[in-house]
Amino acid sequence: MSAALTAANRNKTVLLLGSRDMSEKIVKAHEIRNYPGLPAVKGTEMAEAFRNHLEKAGITITEGRVGAVYAMGDYFALQIGEEMREAKAVILATGVVNANPLPGEKELLGRGVSYCATCDAPLYRGKSAAVIGYSPREEAEAVFLSEVCSDVTYFPVYREETNLPEKVQVIREKVTGIVQEGGKRIVRTENGEYRTDGVFVLREAVAPDNLVPGLETEGAHVKVNRKMETNLPGVFAAGDLTGLPYQYVKAAGEGNVAAISAAQYLDQLR
Ligand SMILES: Cc1cc2nc3c(=O)[nH]c(=O)nc-3n(C[C@H](O)[C@H](O)[C@H](O)COP(=O)(O)OP(=O)(O)OC[C@H]3O[C@@H](n4cnc5c(N)ncnc54)[C@H](O)[C@@H]3O)c2cc1C
Questions:
Q1: What are phi and psi of 38, to 5 degrees?
Q2: What whole-number distance in Å separates Cα of residue 190 and Cα of residue 140?
Q3: Is the CB of 137 under 6 A from ligand 1?
Q4: Mean pLDDT over residues 145-163, rounded?
Q5: What's the pTM value of the predicted model, to 2 decimals?
Q6: Which ligand 1 atom is nearest residue 239's CA?
Q7: Which of 84, 87, 183, 198 is the most exposed place for a label (fewest CB within 10 A)?
Q8: What's the pLDDT score for residue 53?
């Protein structure tokens, strides 16, 4: 948001992709005491303040999850479900992936394991799918898959009650890994094994180098310099994604720097 506000201030056309809830973290934050100008504010209140600010600046949040960002030479192609959007520069502020990949997840990615229901659901039309959802927001994806697939099994990796239609089978067991066997995928849990065609592992954020091929990372974080530039010209990063400490004010500051750098980059292109 901070990056979007600064880029708009610099007269750049901004496409802000994400969620109107802002982020799972801000919804969960009980009370934030160290954000300047907003003393002892609840996460939901802070999100509201940010939404108002965006609205005043004429910026709307486009609901959508980016599946991949491809460098196309002088522009970037962003895959959002079945749609493609183009941008001259990209600022990544996707937060950090807290969870380690499940055993088998990385090995089977693109071979029966997917991070994007909207992108890959057509591959499983009439077949079975399992969804490993790391936040209640992923339930919408399971519902969407249940309209396309013959059956859907949902493994919630959170405590909240699920709110899913009966046709989605909910299994509250700790997932321990994914394996491939005779053309099928098997979701292994502490209590059993579940055979399926496709496994969707849906987290708030995917590993950044999976999102942007060729992006240099250090563990879960994207490597950036003080201008928030990544190793890929035209790609900038800000927030938790660039490393510790995980703080709102740091994320906002980095978003500001990333947007100024992106604006300079765009001006140079011209
Ligand atoms: C319970 C809790 C309490 C906290 N309390 C404090 C506090 O008191 N003070 C403080 O400074 N910090 C606090 N934090 C830390 C703070 O929440 C983070 O530092 C901050 O949210 C980082 O912002 P971010 O924009 O980098 O990432 P996030 O807030 O994680 O936002 C990333 C956004 O990107 C979206 N996204 C991810 N991938 C994609 C994609 N492929 N396509 C489209 N959108 C995508 C996500 O849905 C999300 O909306 C707290 C965190 C938690 C969990």
A1: -130, 75
A2: 26
A3: no
A4: 95
A5: 0.84
A6: 26
A7: 183
A8: 96
